[in-house]
Amino acid sequence: MKKLINDPSNVVAESVAGFALAHADLVRVSNDPLFIVRADAPVRGKVGIVSGGGSGHEPLHGGFVGPGMLDAAVPGPVFTSPTPDPILAATKAVDGGAGVLHIVKNYTGDVLNFETAADLALMEDIDVRSVITNDDVAVKDSLYTAGRRGVAGTVLVEKIAGAAAERLDDLATVARIAEKVNSFVRSMGVALTPCVVPHAGEPSFILAEDEIEIGIGIHGEPGRERITMEPADAIVDRLLGPILEDLPFDSGDEVLLFVNGMGGTPQIELYILFRRAAEVLAERGITVTRSLVGNYTTSLDMQGASISVLKLDAELTTLWDAPVQTSALRWGK
Amino acid sequence: MKKLINDPSNVVAESVAGFALAHADLVRVSNDPLFIVRADAPVRGKVGIVSGGGSGHEPLHGGFVGPGMLDAAVPGPVFTSPTPDPILAATKAVDGGAGVLHIVKNYTGDVLNFETAADLALMEDIDVRSVITNDDVAVKDSLYTAGRRGVAGTVLVEKIAGAAAERLDDLATVARIAEKVNSFVRSMGVALTPCVVPHAGEPSFILAEDEIEIGIGIHGEPGRERITMEPADAIVDRLLGPILEDLPFDSGDEVLLFVNGMGGTPQIELYILFRRAAEVLAERGITVTRSLVGNYTTSLDMQGASISVLKLDAELTTLWDAPVQTSALRWGK
Amino acid sequence: MYLTTAWALAWVRLSAQVIAEHRSDLNTLDREIGDGDHGENMDRGFGAVMGRLSDVSDDAVPSEVLKLVASTLISTVGGAAGPLYGTAYLKAAIAVTGVAELDAAATVSLLTAARDGIVLRGKAVTGDKTMIDAWNPAVDAAVARQAAGGTPLDILSAAADAADQGAIATEPLVARKGRASYLGERARGHRDPGAESTRLLLRAAVDVVAV
Amino acid sequence: MYLTTAWALAWVRLSAQVIAEHRSDLNTLDREIGDGDHGENMDRGFGAVMGRLSDVSDDAVPSEVLKLVASTLISTVGGAAGPLYGTAYLKAAIAVTGVAELDAAATVSLLTAARDGIVLRGKAVTGDKTMIDAWNPAVDAAVARQAAGGTPLDILSAAADAADQGAIATEPLVARKGRASYLGERARGHRDPGAESTRLLLRAAVDVVAV
Ligand SMILES: Nc1ncnc2c1ncn2[C@@H]1O[C@H](COP(=O)(O)OP(=O)(O)O)[C@@H](O)[C@H]1O
Ligand SMILES: Nc1ncnc2c1ncn2[C@@H]1O[C@H](COP(=O)(O)OP(=O)(O)O)[C@@H](O)[C@H]1O
Ligand SMILES: [Mg+2]
Ligand SMILES: [Mg+2]
Ligand SMILES: [Mg+2]
Ligand SMILES: [Mg+2]
Fold this sequence. Notes:
Chain A is an alpha/beta fold. In chain A, 32% of the residues lie in helices and 24% in strands. Chain A is globular.
């Protein structure tokens, strides 16, 4: 394992410190407990939005802190949910009197720690609502699993809920919109290589030179099936199939197509996936009216990608287009 | 080699096709000859800016096409300069009557092919000026080399020259500013792993499990020296040393610090490098007033990074801050 | 024979030691069917507990030790294990609040409350391939041993033996909770890391008395 | 004996074949001290030339064949080799424009003009470890052979032999032009890919006559 790091146990702290230096115009960082807030937090009268989870998925979530998206991000250790303390502290730091929304990816650890933090915040009279994202169709959402995982679709939930909060929608509305985005988005990923967690120093799993993992999670959790390498177009078809089946995407629908890199896959490949995905959607009469391509929800240095499709309506499209000023997503105003 | 591609010989065409679909609001693509222009090209009365070179460095250059930056990008085959035909065609497509600036990275192939295209354009009465970028301090700029290579600093040249063109500076001024940025920026990179060119299917060089290449080029060309793996901070010191020595960066200077990922290195590591680089600069009394962190000039899936330091003055700072609307860099307006 | 504050402190110290020793084994188990950090998480937590153990006053009762462990694990472990174990120690502390010397009944209450805390948060049942697969038989054995007139040590010992079996019994299972549930059939043949850490912690509770 | 259009066409065909056969060798040489695409680039170029060869009219002179090669290489090869070889064929075409049958003097002019075209664009000198290290001795040998009264075939043969030597002679050198110049001392021990392709092309010019 070669990584551009110092002591593996300082990876998150040093990276966040660099992030704070690079983006001092957008964010402030609290070191103990560790969280990132937008520079002007708390914004009076605005719903605060807090997300977080294990590190290693950058730019998720710190890269999305700023006007029009998150008010705070709480980075845990690599691939490990943060504890309630920093979540609570971040929640307090962004409470502008209109309540706080927690956006939580559906993993047992994240859910439990955010739950505790929300309980503690309620005890301090902060109105907290939580939305659990679970867009990963690779996992069956049933009594026999911990439920679907929250993956790259979370970015879309954060962007759109962030826009709603920025225009001063109230907490119930922001939560409703976040739930709606989550219910309208489906994702699935593929890994060509495992990722290497700094403190482990070993790959999270082993793939043979001609094997890929379809339905990979964002922590190197194994996916649905391991298959022999295929051309990009065939892989796209495998990912899109379950996505389109799961939510009735119909002919005539408008969608946002999001091709997300896992961290180690170059952009030139992501656009090859985008091309095929757009083609398949067009064949089904689905129009791609918005798009996002890049490394937005990563798994450290994993090579691979995920595809997310979000069904758009007028409300979501308007909020997607609204200005956003974060280090990783930025447009408008 | 596992890659998310179809036929290796279609990599560039399919990727550009996906790019065009994803960013139809910003760009148009000509397929034969292959080039990317901003959607509203040519802009009357504005200097057109064309860059290009081998593919595999995305988002360089296509990701920088749009208002405030490039008018056109000409992608060659992977790591191979484009031929004069598409460069000429792109030059004509962006000529708004105020002349065209070619921004060319200093590699023999790029220089020669752009030179021919410029000659042909002059024959068609288009006023063409060329600026050759050569910011890589890893290579000695002497009679005994092909000169310094143009690497990540090229992004800064393109952004700042683009801003000058957007405010309708004339060709001589835009060229002067581009030259100035090039003369004020220095870069150096490190590779932890080689990259794999699709049609080759084999790594461009071999590094042992504990070896890294200091002074790597952006095509997997070997660098200054191969050393045993070191902590990130020590590597930053190795890269910054030659950069700071080369251009007299003095105490009191303001700089833009740019940590560029080579494609396979996750963001969490890039910010660790940023942290140390900012620290070293601070120790020397140099103030980082602008920053850029991310995968902007890549080498396919190579793991590694480069550091660029650009000395800022009021003119460059104003132009850096000016609005830019491209798929890879976007702010303002 | 009663379980005292000395026992509680010794248990915590041995727990920290055993977790540190098995840090990499637990990571490996978790790498196989999870995300490879369970040893890391538990070791970070118990390391922090050790750092705060001196905060326990000289006249403390066992529940104060358990509460310190609870709050420290909650605030340092993260992941799934942090809130689950944290709640376990917290509920255990509540169950024996203020009691200086734990008799057989108190020992069973402590174990039962710990288990119930985990179920409250994680909603797992036996066979889900989680730490509950070690806790449930441990608590059942403890209850049975008390009914049969066992001492606190007998009870701990029965619980630890049952937890050993419970941890082993997770191996052939498909998981229905936690990250391993994403694996489907591929989880079979691997021991659940949380069941393994439960086994180690309950064994440490006995070993400090036996020694 | 003169070099005719039939020779020129045969030379181009054999060149395309030889380059295709050595595509991967040239890539390998270039991977060692460059970016690994020289075979790819040349093969793409000569493949395109083959596709356009039927555009040459029946009554064409050799310079028309050379011009077609020139424009095709310029517009399809890219990289350093495209403009360099493109200019070489273009200048060679100009040197023998309109001549139907090339005698010894014309053969030497062709080779000299080609070499000069490369130098004009690339500014390399002998010892820089580039294709010029094959071209310079080739042209020198051609001039000497003509002075000694050689036929066009003798001249091509001498040039090809000298180019072989020139290509080999690049092996111990440090490069001062092209990508290999970034390597410093590490370029020693590797043959320059452009010198190798030059050697192959000049050898093909002889082989089509000899066969
Ligand atoms: N719902 C649950 N109920 C009980 N135990 C659980 C539950 N979910 C996970 N676990 C336990 O947590 C362990 C994993 O802990 P750890 O690796 O520290 O957290 P994470 O899964 O967040 O990385 C599993 O081995 C399992 O025993
Ligand atoms: N300035 C130059 N003069 C002559 N030949 C050169 C020069 N620069 C490079 N070359 C030749 O070009 C060859 C490399 O060609 P190629 O690999 O196709 O292009 P690129 O280097 O752009 O990838 C080198 O082996 C060398 O022989
Ligand atoms: Mg974890
Ligand atoms: Mg090349
Ligand atoms: Mg785990
Ligand atoms: Mg080459």
